[in-house]
Amino acid sequence: MNENEEEVNEDQEMIEIFVMGKRYNVPKGLTIMTALEYAGYKFVRGCGCRGGFCGACSTVYRTEDEYKLKMDLACQTAVEDGMFLVQLPFVPAVREEFDIEEVDPEEHDNVMLDYYPEIARCVSCNTCTKSCPQDIEVMDYVQAALRGDIERCAELSFDCIQCGLCSIRCPADIKHYHLAQLARRITGRYIDKNSDELDKRVEEIKEGKYDEEMKEMVEMELEKLKETYDTRDIKEEG
Protein backbone atom coordinates (compact mmCIF):
# COMPACT_ATOMS: atom_id res chain seq x y z
CA MET A 1 0.00 0.00 0.00
CA ASN A 2 1.40 3.43 -0.92
CA GLU A 3 0.88 6.81 0.75
CA ASN A 4 -2.01 7.79 -1.51
CA GLU A 5 -3.95 4.60 -0.77
CA GLU A 6 -4.05 5.44 2.93
CA GLU A 7 -5.74 8.77 2.16
CA VAL A 8 -8.69 7.25 0.26
CA ASN A 9 -12.07 7.35 1.96
CA GLU A 10 -13.08 3.90 3.18
CA ASP A 11 -16.37 4.24 1.27
CA GLN A 12 -14.59 5.03 -2.01
CA GLU A 13 -15.39 2.47 -4.70
CA MET A 14 -12.25 0.78 -6.00
CA ILE A 15 -11.73 -0.69 -9.46
CA GLU A 16 -9.05 -2.91 -10.97
CA ILE A 17 -6.75 -1.78 -13.77
CA PHE A 18 -3.65 -3.29 -15.38
CA VAL A 19 -0.58 -1.19 -16.21
CA MET A 20 1.92 -2.92 -18.48
CA GLY A 21 0.39 -6.21 -17.27
CA LYS A 22 0.57 -5.46 -13.55
CA ARG A 23 -2.65 -5.32 -11.50
CA TYR A 24 -3.58 -2.28 -9.37
CA ASN A 25 -6.64 -1.27 -7.38
CA VAL A 26 -7.44 2.42 -7.77
CA PRO A 27 -10.39 4.67 -6.85
CA LYS A 28 -13.16 4.91 -9.41
CA GLY A 29 -13.46 8.31 -11.11
CA LEU A 30 -9.77 9.09 -11.44
CA THR A 31 -8.28 9.97 -14.79
CA ILE A 32 -5.75 7.53 -16.19
CA MET A 33 -2.98 9.94 -15.26
CA THR A 34 -4.06 10.41 -11.64
CA ALA A 35 -4.74 6.66 -11.33
CA LEU A 36 -1.18 5.91 -12.41
CA GLU A 37 0.13 8.37 -9.83
CA TYR A 38 -2.12 6.81 -7.19
CA ALA A 39 -0.63 3.44 -8.11
CA GLY A 40 2.83 4.80 -7.38
CA TYR A 41 4.08 5.84 -10.79
CA LYS A 42 6.02 9.09 -11.02
CA PHE A 43 5.88 10.98 -14.30
CA VAL A 44 9.22 12.30 -15.52
CA ARG A 45 7.95 12.72 -19.08
CA GLY A 46 4.69 12.11 -20.88
CA CYS A 47 2.81 14.69 -18.83
CA GLY A 48 2.67 18.39 -19.57
CA CYS A 49 -0.37 20.61 -19.34
CA ARG A 50 -2.70 18.02 -17.75
CA GLY A 51 -5.50 19.85 -19.53
CA GLY A 52 -5.76 18.13 -22.89
CA PHE A 53 -3.73 20.66 -24.86
CA CYS A 54 -0.13 19.45 -25.10
CA GLY A 55 -0.64 15.88 -26.33
CA ALA A 56 2.17 14.50 -24.17
CA CYS A 57 0.16 11.80 -22.35
CA SER A 58 -0.93 9.69 -25.31
CA THR A 59 -2.24 6.34 -24.10
CA VAL A 60 -3.17 3.02 -25.70
CA TYR A 61 -5.60 0.78 -23.84
CA ARG A 62 -8.16 -1.97 -24.02
CA THR A 63 -11.26 -2.31 -21.91
CA GLU A 64 -12.54 -5.57 -20.47
CA ASP A 65 -14.08 -7.96 -23.00
CA GLU A 66 -13.18 -5.60 -25.84
CA TYR A 67 -10.62 -6.73 -28.42
CA LYS A 68 -10.11 -3.35 -30.10
CA LEU A 69 -7.30 -1.01 -29.10
CA LYS A 70 -8.41 2.42 -27.98
CA MET A 71 -6.45 5.68 -28.01
CA ASP A 72 -6.80 8.72 -25.78
CA LEU A 73 -5.06 11.22 -23.53
CA ALA A 74 -4.34 10.03 -20.00
CA CYS A 75 -5.27 13.39 -18.48
CA GLN A 76 -8.73 13.41 -20.08
CA THR A 77 -9.93 9.81 -19.82
CA ALA A 78 -11.38 8.15 -16.72
CA VAL A 79 -10.20 4.69 -15.76
CA GLU A 80 -12.60 1.78 -16.13
CA ASP A 81 -12.75 -1.48 -14.27
CA GLY A 82 -10.66 -4.07 -16.08
CA MET A 83 -8.80 -1.51 -18.21
CA PHE A 84 -5.44 -2.60 -19.66
CA LEU A 85 -3.06 0.35 -20.12
CA VAL A 86 0.13 0.98 -22.05
CA GLN A 87 1.85 4.35 -21.70
CA LEU A 88 3.81 5.71 -24.64
CA PRO A 89 6.91 7.58 -23.46
CA PHE A 90 7.37 9.19 -26.85
CA VAL A 91 6.43 8.77 -30.50
CA PRO A 92 9.50 8.44 -32.76
CA ALA A 93 8.22 10.16 -35.91
CA VAL A 94 10.76 11.93 -38.11
CA ARG A 95 9.89 15.52 -39.01
CA GLU A 96 11.24 16.88 -42.28
CA GLU A 97 13.45 19.94 -42.00
CA PHE A 98 12.34 23.02 -43.91
CA ASP A 99 12.87 26.77 -44.11
CA ILE A 100 9.46 28.46 -44.22
CA GLU A 101 10.91 31.06 -46.60
CA GLU A 102 11.66 28.31 -49.12
CA VAL A 103 8.35 26.46 -49.18
CA ASP A 104 6.29 28.94 -51.19
CA PRO A 105 3.44 26.81 -52.60
CA GLU A 106 3.53 28.82 -55.83
CA GLU A 107 6.99 27.44 -56.54
CA HIS A 108 6.01 23.77 -56.13
CA ASP A 109 3.58 21.53 -57.98
CA ASN A 110 2.60 20.11 -54.58
CA VAL A 111 4.81 21.27 -51.73
CA MET A 112 3.14 18.89 -49.28
CA LEU A 113 3.98 15.91 -51.46
CA ASP A 114 7.53 17.18 -51.94
CA TYR A 115 8.23 17.19 -48.20
CA TYR A 116 6.06 14.24 -47.21
CA PRO A 117 5.88 11.90 -50.25
CA GLU A 118 4.62 9.05 -48.04
CA ILE A 119 1.13 10.59 -48.11
CA ALA A 120 0.81 9.03 -51.58
CA ARG A 121 0.76 5.65 -49.79
CA CYS A 122 -2.48 6.51 -47.95
CA VAL A 123 -4.98 3.69 -48.44
CA SER A 124 -7.87 5.60 -46.84
CA CYS A 125 -8.26 3.04 -44.05
CA ASN A 126 -9.23 5.86 -41.65
CA THR A 127 -7.30 4.30 -38.76
CA CYS A 128 -5.71 7.70 -38.13
CA THR A 129 -9.08 9.37 -37.64
CA LYS A 130 -10.24 6.62 -35.29
CA SER A 131 -7.07 7.09 -33.21
CA CYS A 132 -7.42 10.86 -32.78
CA PRO A 133 -8.40 12.01 -29.25
CA GLN A 134 -9.44 15.37 -30.73
CA ASP A 135 -11.97 13.81 -33.13
CA ILE A 136 -10.15 15.36 -36.09
CA GLU A 137 -10.88 14.01 -39.57
CA VAL A 138 -7.23 13.08 -40.02
CA MET A 139 -7.65 11.04 -43.20
CA ASP A 140 -9.53 13.93 -44.80
CA TYR A 141 -6.72 16.40 -44.21
CA VAL A 142 -4.15 13.92 -45.55
CA GLN A 143 -6.25 13.61 -48.70
CA ALA A 144 -6.47 17.40 -48.91
CA ALA A 145 -2.67 17.59 -48.74
CA LEU A 146 -2.41 14.94 -51.43
CA ARG A 147 -4.61 17.09 -53.69
CA GLY A 148 -2.45 20.13 -52.93
CA ASP A 149 -5.22 21.86 -50.97
CA ILE A 150 -2.99 23.29 -48.26
CA GLU A 151 -5.58 25.65 -46.83
CA ARG A 152 -8.11 22.83 -46.35
CA CYS A 153 -5.43 20.64 -44.74
CA ALA A 154 -4.60 23.45 -42.33
CA GLU A 155 -8.27 24.08 -41.53
CA LEU A 156 -9.12 20.44 -40.81
CA SER A 157 -6.00 19.91 -38.67
CA PHE A 158 -6.27 23.13 -36.67
CA ASP A 159 -7.09 21.35 -33.37
CA CYS A 160 -4.17 18.90 -33.62
CA ILE A 161 -2.19 18.65 -30.37
CA GLN A 162 0.71 16.64 -31.84
CA CYS A 163 0.17 13.56 -29.67
CA GLY A 164 1.25 11.22 -32.49
CA LEU A 165 -1.40 8.55 -31.97
CA CYS A 166 -2.43 8.79 -35.63
CA SER A 167 1.09 8.05 -36.79
CA ILE A 168 1.74 5.01 -34.61
CA ARG A 169 -1.36 3.32 -35.99
CA CYS A 170 -0.81 4.17 -39.66
CA PRO A 171 0.03 1.17 -41.91
CA ALA A 172 1.53 3.55 -44.48
CA ASP A 173 3.91 5.19 -41.97
CA ILE A 174 2.53 8.67 -42.64
CA LYS A 175 3.56 11.43 -40.22
CA HIS A 176 0.14 13.07 -40.17
CA TYR A 177 0.73 15.62 -37.43
CA HIS A 178 4.02 16.88 -38.91
CA LEU A 179 2.33 17.15 -42.30
CA ALA A 180 -0.47 19.17 -40.70
CA GLN A 181 1.99 21.47 -38.97
CA LEU A 182 3.65 22.25 -42.30
CA ALA A 183 0.25 23.00 -43.85
CA ARG A 184 -0.64 25.43 -41.07
CA ARG A 185 2.72 27.19 -41.29
CA ILE A 186 2.48 27.58 -45.05
CA THR A 187 -1.08 28.85 -44.70
CA GLY A 188 -0.04 31.42 -42.12
CA ARG A 189 2.99 32.55 -44.15
CA TYR A 190 1.64 32.56 -47.70
CA ILE A 191 -2.13 32.12 -47.86
CA ASP A 192 -3.89 33.88 -44.98
CA LYS A 193 -4.49 37.60 -45.37
CA ASN A 194 -2.62 39.91 -43.04
CA SER A 195 -4.68 41.18 -40.13
CA ASP A 196 -5.47 44.89 -40.41
CA GLU A 197 -5.08 45.28 -36.66
CA LEU A 198 -2.04 43.10 -35.99
CA ASP A 199 0.67 45.74 -36.48
CA LYS A 200 -1.35 48.24 -34.47
CA ARG A 201 -1.80 45.79 -31.61
CA VAL A 202 1.91 44.92 -31.53
CA GLU A 203 2.81 48.60 -31.27
CA GLU A 204 0.30 49.09 -28.45
CA ILE A 205 1.86 46.19 -26.55
CA LYS A 206 5.35 47.66 -27.03
CA GLU A 207 4.12 51.02 -25.75
CA GLY A 208 2.81 49.39 -22.57
CA LYS A 209 -0.87 50.07 -23.20
CA TYR A 210 -1.91 46.76 -21.62
CA ASP A 211 0.60 46.54 -18.78
CA GLU A 212 -1.93 47.42 -16.08
CA GLU A 213 -4.50 44.96 -17.41
CA MET A 214 -1.90 42.20 -17.55
CA LYS A 215 -0.82 42.91 -13.99
CA GLU A 216 -4.46 42.79 -12.87
CA MET A 217 -5.01 39.41 -14.55
CA VAL A 218 -1.83 37.92 -13.08
CA GLU A 219 -3.02 38.86 -9.59
CA MET A 220 -6.65 37.81 -10.18
CA GLU A 221 -8.21 34.89 -8.31
CA LEU A 222 -8.67 31.79 -10.49
CA GLU A 223 -12.49 31.79 -10.43
CA LYS A 224 -12.60 35.48 -11.31
CA LEU A 225 -10.14 34.89 -14.12
CA LYS A 226 -12.32 32.10 -15.52
CA GLU A 227 -15.41 34.33 -15.31
CA THR A 228 -13.58 37.14 -17.09
CA TYR A 229 -12.52 34.75 -19.84
CA ASP A 230 -16.01 33.28 -20.29
CA THR A 231 -17.69 36.72 -20.52
CA ARG A 232 -15.09 38.42 -22.73
CA ASP A 233 -16.17 40.28 -25.86
CA ILE A 234 -15.22 38.50 -29.08
CA LYS A 235 -15.04 40.41 -32.33
CA GLU A 236 -16.74 38.52 -35.15
CA GLU A 237 -15.01 38.09 -38.48
CA GLY A 238 -16.38 39.79 -41.53
Give a verbal description of the structure:
The chain has 238 residues and is an alpha+beta fold. It has 2 domains: 11-87, Beta-grasp domain (Ubiquitin-like (UB roll), Roll); 100-191, Fumarate Reductase Iron-sulfur Protein, Chain B, domain 2, CATH 1.10.1060.10. The chain has helices at residues 3-7, 32-38, 111-115, 127-131, 138-147, 150-156, 165-169, 176-191, 198-206, 211-218, 222-230, and strands at residues 14-19, 22-27, 58-62, 70-73, 83-87. A 5-stranded mixed beta sheet has the order 2-1-5-3-4, with helices on one face. Strand 1 and strand 2 (22-27) form a beta hairpin. The protein is flat, with a radius of gyration of 22 Å. Residues 1-6 have low confidence and may be disordered.
Ordered list of secondary-structure elements with their pairings:
Blueprint: H1 3-7, E1 14-19, E2 22-27, H2 32-38, E3 58-62, E4 70-73, E5 83-87, H3 111-115, H4 127-131, H5 138-147, H6 150-156, H7 165-169, H8 176-191, H9 198-206, H10 211-218, H11 222-230
Parallel strand pairs: 1-5
Antiparallel strand pairs: 1-2, 3-4, 3-5
Helix pairs in contact: 5-6, 5-8, 6-8
Question: Could you give me the name of the CATH homologous superfamily of the largest domain?
Answer: Alpha-helical ferredoxin
Biggest sheet strand order reads 2-1-5-3-4
The secondary-structure class comes to alpha+beta
| Tally of DSSP helical segments | 11
CATH fold title of the largest domain: Fumarate Reductase Iron-sulfur Protein, Chain B, domain 2
Q: Enumerate the spans where pLDDT stays under 50 for 5 or more consecutive residues.
A: 1-6
Order of helices and strands: HEEHEEEHHHHHHHHH
Mean pLDDT: 88
Shape: flat
Q: Strand share of the residues?
A: 5-15%
Amount of helix: 25-40%
| Total number of strands | 5
Radius of gyration: 22 Å
Q: CATH top level of the largest domain? A: Mainly Alpha
Alpha-carbon distance between the two ends: 60 Å
If classified by CATH, what would the architecture of the largest domain be? Orthogonal Bundle
Integer count of domains: 2
Largest sheet: 5 strands, mixed
